[in-house]
Structure formats: structure tokens, C-alpha cells
């Protein structure tokens, strides 16, 4: 709601505050969960009736306002994972470094080790 809207409507003192908010939604299109109704700076609670407030008498003005609709925070963008990394493989006689990426499997790693060692794959 940008600005002021002056309106009046009849309500009963036995009427729950949530019902009054539904009437305002029907009349002005403001979602009831974003409405704040006050009397003398006292916020009215949805589950209570108007008669629960001793300040209310015939002709009492209820002041509606709306909560600011803040947009949801932007999603946190994670940097893409490093696609290449270097691992060190300890063999019985020495250590070797092999480049791998996130799609490598244990099988493909074994094949890379065999290639570096100069052995044939599958044999």
C-alpha cells in the first residue's frame, strides 16, 4: 500500500480481529497476514474479539497499516568446485602425483596410476 486509503466499515464488538482483517482483504485486497490493526497504538491480536479491548466503544476508529513486504534474501551463490585437483598416491617404493577431477572414479584413478607406472590397464 503506497499512501493512505480512507474507508469505513461496520463491525461488531463480538467479531474476531482476524475476521475484520479478512473483510479488509476482501475490500482492499491487502493480505490479512500483512495487516496490522491498532487502537491508540495498541496492536490488536488476531485471536481476540473487539470486546476484549476496553478501549473500544461505538464509533472507535481502528487504524490499519501494513507490514513492509521485504523480498527474500538473494540466494547464496557458491563458487563452482575446483574441477581439477592434484592428489599424492603413496606406493610401496615411491610417491606419485596425479591430476584428478570430480568426475573421476576409483576405477579411473587406478587406471591413471597404472599409466603413470608404465603398466598396461586390465592386465
TrEMBL record:
Classification via InterPro entries? Ubiquitin-like_dom (IPR000626), Ubiquitin-like_domsf (IPR029071)
GO terms for MF: polyubiquitin modification-dependent protein binding; proteasome binding; ubiquitin binding
Which residues fall in a compositionally biased region of kind Pro residues? 70-82
Its GO biological process annotations read: proteasome-mediated ubiquitin-dependent protein catabolic process
Which residue intervals make up region (Disordered)? 59-82
From the broadest rank down, the organism's phylogenetic lineage runs: Eukaryota, Viridiplantae, Streptophyta, Embryophyta, Tracheophyta
Q: What name has this protein been given in UniProt?
A: Ubiquitin-like domain-containing protein
One Pfam family, short name please? ubiquitin
Q: Name one GO cellular component term.
A: nucleoplasm
Segments forming domain Ubiquitin-like: 87-118
